[in-house]
Amino acid sequence: MVKKVVSATEVAKLANVSQSTVSRVFTPGASVSEKTRKKVLEAAEVLNYHPNALARSLITKKTNIIGLAMKDIQNPFYHEVLGIFSKKLREKGYFVLFVYTENEEIQQDEIHHFLEYNVEAIIVTDALLSSKLVEQLRKNDIPVILFNRYEKSLLCNSVSCDNIYAAREIAAYVYKKGYTDIVYITGKINTSTNRDRQKGFTEYLKEKGIDVKIIEGDYTYERAFHVTKQFIEDGHKPEVIFGANDITALGALDALKEKNVRIPKETAVIGFDDIRMSSWPNYALSTWIQPVQEMVDETINILMSSKQRKEPQTIKVKGHFIHRNTTV
Amino acid sequence: MVKKVVSATEVAKLANVSQSTVSRVFTPGASVSEKTRKKVLEAAEVLNYHPNALARSLITKKTNIIGLAMKDIQNPFYHEVLGIFSKKLREKGYFVLFVYTENEEIQQDEIHHFLEYNVEAIIVTDALLSSKLVEQLRKNDIPVILFNRYEKSLLCNSVSCDNIYAAREIAAYVYKKGYTDIVYITGKINTSTNRDRQKGFTEYLKEKGIDVKIIEGDYTYERAFHVTKQFIEDGHKPEVIFGANDITALGALDALKEKNVRIPKETAVIGFDDIRMSSWPNYALSTWIQPVQEMVDETINILMSSKQRKEPQTIKVKGHFIHRNTTV
Questions:
Q1: FRET pair for B207, CA 20 to 30 Å: which of A116, A290, B21, B274?
Q2: Where does the record place the HTH lacI-type domain (chains A, B) (predicted)?
Q3: CATH class held by domain B8-51
């Protein structure tokens, strides 16, 4: 099947406008009246015309494509993040080129592909990025924004929750309740989110003379379920468990239920994220609300202004604790 | 910042190979020895060379971009689908341009954007597509594949579970257990998945002289929780509830638990999909396993061969029932 290529000139002729008006109608963000826009779109539809964004991008150097690299596709928190990014970027005329990166660290060839498609910026959620790759992107003048994490050693933008602040607030809550037998189930230990939550939580309690028992998790339900079941079977029933994210807390919660531990009376449980299922009545998990909408807005702000700035930006948002049924 | 543009010739010179070899290394699917590939990639890295996929696409007419339009970003089933698509398409050298469509029906301008980016095919999961848009895509020679649904009236490919077969199998199971007080909580009523599951389930039982009580849901946890709580409060405690998808069944399950209904003794619950959390011990939901990997493979097969075929293909896969704790 051979496609008949329709030119902008033909559309302009049918719509009775200039060719530059047709061009403006198909340029994201360009000014054009609603009436003219409608006329041009109708003519375009009649002729089956669609401008070639890729050809245009070679001239304007703007592709309107943002690369998004994500690893933990199983974590509901990141599904929500993807949905919000996709929606908000669309409103600004941008599209998401999505890469699900299976490796712990983003690979050279994944970045190569982003470069090949002339993405205008790269958003990296939970995958790791080597300083060598960041340098390569900097050389190509492509801003990188770490979302929900930061790395001091990397020269790139980041937007995350103030995890130290949040974890200290949670610790203060736990301390006020008078608990002393306290468990923290970690996330992946090499992530900034886990590092800061663990630091904020344990340091606050340490200052009060309380040692927190650290149990290694990996941000999955399955691991948290397993380790919690294990320490209950070993005869340790803590007064409170703080899970490094909601999925971890839900895994712990289900293990406690299976062992007939009364929640929150015998053991209270606290998570972090406020994923949708944490508010389901069966769980009703007390947790820290990460202000995802705000985090996405901040990321897009950086993205829109990054060409004017030299220094990378670090944004931290706060969020707040929500008390549901798993705490007294 | 002005980028220095490095040409393939310079890379060829440094790697001591021909320019066409450099070109082959950067063409997805082209044959080249591992040794040569390594040599070229090293030279490319030294020179900070990356080929322009967009410029190449104007010549080859191949962008290696697949558009993926999805609506129900809150349903874990579709997260899994997105992850698997992204991974398997990558293996074939393709990238996913992701569009989260908020409207019930895919809009003209969303398709416009896909056309602008010269996507090679469009995969549509749960959003609706008008026959007018399908026709427009056909004119542009872009194959459309409906995933997890089909529409007889639309001239496009589809890959879905054989929902009528599956629902009849579930009905046979329910019948064999001797239940007569049976509730089906629907999904969104205008979807092919709900239509077929409802049809297969109710028709089988009708043939056995049993009327199924239909309660309208919408494929969300929240709605299923609400309606189930409602009919329990109204004094109706059915022997079994079949939810149109897992999220629906989990909502029903939690409402039953809140009302202290013993599961599965008083009321059994069955879902459809086998999302990850259905196997969590707290739920252990009996459900129909949709063979997602197989469905994605079939979709990619259609995608790879669609240019050679004129007639759209309809693929139905089977899947199977898994008995967990919510059935006797």
A1: B274
A2: 6-60
A3: mainly alpha
d(CA A150, CA A100): 19
In one letter, which amino acid is A196?
D
Query: Residues A13-33: pLDDT tens digits?
Result: 999 998 888 887 876 566 788
User: For residues B210 and B180, what is the distance between their CA atoms, to the nearest angstrom?
Assistant: 6
User: Which residues touch A99 (CB under 8 Å, ≥6 apart)?
Assistant: A67, A68, A69, A70, A110, A113, A114, B86, B90, B95, B96
Residue A53 to residue B116, Cβ atoms within 8 A: yes
Q: Decide if B98 and A96 are in contact by the 8 Å CB cutoff.
A: yes
Beta carbons of A52 and B116 less than 8 Å apart = yes
Half-sphere exposure of B184 (CA within 13 A, CB side): 27
Q: Please give the residue of chain B at the shortest CA–CA distance from A70.
A: B83
Q: Which of A73, A95, A225 lies at the smallest CB-CB distance from B79?
A: A73
Please judge whether A63 and B54 are an interchain contact, meaning their C-beta atoms are less than 8 angstroms apart.
yes
Read off the pTM: 0.82
Find, in chain B, the residue whose alpha carbon is nearest to that of A252: B282
Give A254's contacts in chain B (Cβ within 8 Å).
280-282
Nearest chain B Cα distance for residue A211, angstroms: 31
**Which of 3.30.70.100, 3.30.2350.10, 1.10.530.10, 3.40.50.2300 would CATH assign to domain A163-290?**
3.40.50.2300
For the domain made up of B63-160+292-318, the CATH class stated in words is alpha beta
* A192-220 residue pLDDT tens: 999 999 999 999 999 999 999 999 999 99
ipTM surpasses 0.90: no
Report cis status (omega within 30 of 0) of the bond before A238: no
